[in-house]
Structures are given as structure tokens and as C-alpha cells.
Amino acid sequence: MANKDAPPRWDRKMQQRLARGEAAALGELYDRFASLVHGLAHRVLGDERAADGVTREVFAHVWEHPDSYDPRQGPLRSWVAALTHRLAVQRLRATESAALALDGSDSTEELENKVRHASVAARADYIVQSMPTPLRAALELAYFQRRDYRQTAADLGVTEDEARRRLRLGLQLLSTAHDAAAPGAPPGRYGGAA
After folding, report:
1. Checking phi first, is residue 12 left (phi over 0); if not, alpha (psi -120 to 50) or beta?
2. Could you read off the pLDDT of 79-98 as tens digits, one per residue?
3. Residue 11 and residue 174: Cα distance in Å, rounded?
4. How wide is the angle at C-alpha 73 spanned by C-alphas 69 and 78, nearest 5°?
5. Positions in the chain short of pLDDT 70
6. CA distances from 138 to 105, 106, 131, 151, 177 (A)
7. Residue 186: left (phi > 0), alpha (psi -120 to 50), or beta?
């Protein structure tokens, strides 16, 4: 039986390869996580060019500081997502603070609300992308195609009880997006919400 505390083998090997300075490892990591990084950054910032900049920052940070990832703390994917979230929120705060200083139209409270809403949306996107395919498929049918649990069960070829279970579990996972970004919420692995 595998040790539950042991990090995934790929994550450990990738961290070791990056620490040795293998450029091919960075390329492999980029191929695997670039769409996740860019998508999360874009969700927080709402701007393509800014998301491109955060994507470059994330992979530059990984290349320059590969030892800042600790495989015992969780999957590499989660660490990269948390790093992306942190850098995107920093950029959003800096951009919005600069705009606030120039025209004074937004208050600090409005800025924090923007950051909080962007954080919840980005975390929800990450949760949906990371959830098991059966849960994601059930949620997509129910939400995007407006199927009830009976129709979802028929479309997926599962029992109605199984469809309800998948929908319930998927929604429970999604509900954590708001909880983790709420003020005073305990941080998750690698810092949780910013």
C-alpha cells in the first residue's frame, strides 16, 4: 500500500530536475501547466496581456526558485496554482491601487471586494478543472445544459442515485471556493486565498 503522505513521483522528479537546472524540465512543466496558469491569471485580472505577464512571472519564479516547492506539502499543480493566484492578486492590487491613487474613484474597500471576487472566481475555476471527470461531467450537464438529475443520469448512463451523488459532491467541492477566499478563512496548502 502506498504511503498517503508521499508526494507523487512525477512531482518529486520534476522538482529535482528543475533544481538541477534542466531546461527541458521547465518546458515539460510549461506544457503541462501553462493553460492552467494563464486561465487562473486571466480569471483574476480580466486582461489577456496582464495574464500573459503573470504566466511569465510564474514560470520564471519556478525556474529561479525550484526549491521553494516542497513535495510533502501537496501536488506541484496546487503549488503552481497557488503561486499563480498570489502573483495575479498582487498585480491586481497594484494596478487597482495605482488607479485609485490617480482618480480616487474606488475606495480601499471596493478594491478588496474586487480582489475577493476575483479570488473566488479563480478558485472555482481551479476546483472545476481539478475535480474528477465524472463529477465535472455531471456538473456541466446540470449547469450548462440545464439538465436535472434524472436527465443527467440518462446522459451519463448511470443511476439516478449516482447522478445525485456526483452533483452533490461536485457542488460541495465548489462551495469551498467561497469559503477559502472569505476574510479570516484559514489558508489551505501553499497559502490558500491571498
Report:
1. alpha
2. 999 899 999 989 988 887 76
3. 25
4. 70
5. 1-7, 98-107, 179-194
6. 43, 40, 11, 10, 18
7. beta
Q: % helix / strand / coil in the chain, to the nearest 5?
A: 80, 0, 20
Say how far apart CA 88 and CA 40 lie, in whole Å: 8
In tens, the pLDDT along 25-59 reads 999 999 999 999 999 999 889 899 999 999 999 99
C-alpha cell at 188: 489551505
Report the share of the chain in percent with pLDDT over 90.
Answer: 40
Cell of 96: 487597482
C-alpha cell read off for 64? 529561479
pLDDT for the residue 121: 77
Contact 8, 77 (CB under 8 A): no
Place of cell 493553460: 35
Cell digits of residue 69: 516547492
Taking Cα atoms as reference points, which of 191, 182, 4 lies closest to residue 79? Answer: 191
Question: Cell 461531467, residue?
Answer: 137
What's the farthest any 2 CA atoms get from each other in the chain? 61
